[in-house]
Write a structure and sequence with these properties.
It is built from 8 helices and no strands. The protein is an all-alpha fold. It has one domain. Helix 4 packs across helix 6. The two termini are 15 Å apart.
Length: 195
């Protein structure tokens, strides 16, 4: 018997945070985390995309790729599924939440190439998760990514850049803060880690 979806969900948020343990999705994390509002918007979009594409890619893999014995196309097919879904999400956000659309700018279409989203799809296959486990892992990974970007955005908002030495301003201090946050999340490691 594998890990339950409930445990997998919470483990993906805290003990196996996709960003703080695997450091996947760092490019948009570092770039967008300057403002809390845009960080929250991107984090919610990433969570939504991760949850839905985890389920979609699991179904595509189990019902199309494996029966046809074309698993070697997983990378390409997973990217196509992610890109199509992100394009749909981009159109919806542009139509109904234009302020968020313009604040995210280029980073919304870049969700397509966010390595955290592709990494979750690959972890589903490597770890042989079932459908509910895939959805739970996708949702938990998304919420973990959202938690990490909101924490960094809050810290960067409170941090006065002028008090930071010149050589550490910008991405340098953000990486140091991220490392400290990753160390803090090690405190959850006694709960349940996902292997």
């Amino acid at each position: 018997m594998g890990i339950t979806p409930f445990v997998l969900f919470w483990a993906a948020i805290f003990t196996s945070n996709i960003l703080l343990t695997n450091f996947l999705g760092m490019c948009s994390y570092l770039s967008v985390s300057k403002e809390v509002e845009s960080s929250a918007g991107l984090g919610i979009a990433v969570t939504f995309v991760l949850t839905v594409t985890a389920g979609l890619n699991w179904m595509v893999n189990e019902y199309i790729l494996v029966p046809l014995k074309i698993e070697y196309l997983q990378f390409i097919v997973f990217i196509i599924v992610i890109a199509a879904f992100v394009q749909l999400l981009e159109l919806i956000i542009e139509r109904y939440v234009p302020a968020l659309y313009y604040s995210l700018g280029i980073f919304l279409p870049l969700i397509t190439v966010n390595c955290a989203i592709f990494g979750v799809s690959l972890f589903l296959v490597i770890r042989n998760y079932g459908f509910l486990q895939s959805i739970a892992f996708g949702a938990g990974s998304g919420l973990g990514w959202l938690l990490a970007i909101l924490m960094l955005a809050g810290i960067r908002h409170r941090l006065k850049e002028k008090l930071v030495p010149a050589g550490l301003r910008g991405a340098s201090i953000s990486l140091i803060i991220t490392g400290i946050m990753a160390l803090a999340f090690i405190g959850f490691s006694g709960i349940q880690a996902v292997q």
